């Protein structure tokens, strides 16, 4: 299974969309000072809402670091 599929699976396991998980990563990453998230259509708010309500844990952070190691 590829990294994208694993990412999708991780998102589904936490009942969020992949976009919601990606935005949650931005909100919770220590090197991201202020994520700028723009939406132009109402359905795009779902990912923003998911990111804000997401229960981030160090386990999720570690799993994403495994999937996408820093270059």
Give a description of the structure.
With 71 residues, this protein is an all-alpha fold. The protein has one domain (3-67). 58% of the residues lie in helices and 0% in strands. It is built from four helices and no strands. Helix 2 crosses helix 3 (45-53). The longest helix is centred in the first third of the chain and has 11 residues, at 3-13. The two termini are 21 Å apart.
pLDDT under 50 segments (min length 5)?
A: none
Count of distinct strands:
0
The number of helical elements comes to: 4
Summed over residues and divided by their number, the pLDDT gives a mean of 88
Shape: globular
Distance between the termini: 21 Å
Question: What about the largest sheet?
Answer: none
What is the N-to-C order of secondary-structure elements (H for helix, E for strand)? Answer: HHHH
* SSE-based structural type: mainly alpha
Looking at the chains present, what oligomeric state does this protein adopt?
Answer: single chain
Q: What fraction of residues sit in β-strands?
A: under 5%
CA gyration radius, whole angstroms: 12 Å
User: What helical percentage do the residues reach?
Assistant: 55-70%
Pfam family, one: Aldo_ket_red
InterPro entries: NAD(P)_OxRdtase_dom_sf, NADP_OxRdtase_dom
Domain NADP-dependent oxidoreductase: 4-67
Protein name: Aldo/keto reductase family protein
């Amino acid at each position: 299974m590829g990294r994208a599929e694993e990412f999708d699976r991780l998102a589904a396991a936490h009942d969020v969309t992949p976009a919601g998980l990606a935005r949650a990563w931005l909100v919770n990453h220590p090197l991201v000072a202020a994520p700028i998230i723009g939406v132009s259509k109402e359905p795009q708010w779902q990912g923003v809402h998911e990111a804000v309500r997401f229960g981030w844990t160090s386990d999720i952070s570690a799993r994403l670091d495994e999937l996408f190691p820093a270059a």
